[in-house]
Amino acid sequence: MYIAAPDRTLGEQEWxxxxxxxxxxxxxAPGVDLEYPVVSPTQFVLEGSKVLAHFARPNPxxxxxxxxxxxxxxxxxxxxxxxxxxxxxxxxxxxxxxPTTYYAAVQLKGHAVVKDDPAVIADLLRRQLAAFQPSTxxxxxxxxxxxxxxxxxxxxxxxxxxxxxxxxxxNVDRDHRExxxxxxxNRRSGEDxxxxxxxxxxxxxx
Length: 206
Fold this sequence. Notes:
Elements lengths: L11 H10 L2 E6 L8 E6 L1 E3 L2 E7 L3 H8 L2 E13 L17 E16 L2 H15 L8 H4 L7 E16 L6 H14 L4 H14 L1
Antiparallel strand pairs: 1-2, 1-5, 3-4, 4-7, 5-6, 6-7
Helix pairs in contact: 5-6
């Protein structure tokens, strides 16, 4: 992922809340001698420097990880298309504006371990469920669903490197960013309001 200077993350205090608020991403395993890397969409939980995920036993991502434990979890979102005419303020010619897309993207890279012990799988499921539905009573997976645990495998990714990009107009001045924020809040489509919030937050910190 190319990260220009204005789009660099402000640090863990920026990328971690983004990842925690969007616990669904693409788990990427290059494997060994594969024509393409294996890309598997998945729900996950980020606990400290560990990513907790689970996959169906036949998922090819598991064989790829056993062959090569290096992996990437990619999370992206809060995106909005910025039309060319939004890039013009004052007496600037709207037809000369350059369109772009605002978005956030985080890649968590590291070493992944596949775990097949039912007790370990059950523990990971408990931790995931505690994060996804903390106020809902759930049966213990090890006792209530012991016969189904063999159908899945737990994966724990130990994060060793983080690449994070928050592309929200950092290459333009305050007036142009404020104009885009106003347009996003008026359009209110898709993830416009999230993109506007990121733009405003990063504008305040600049």
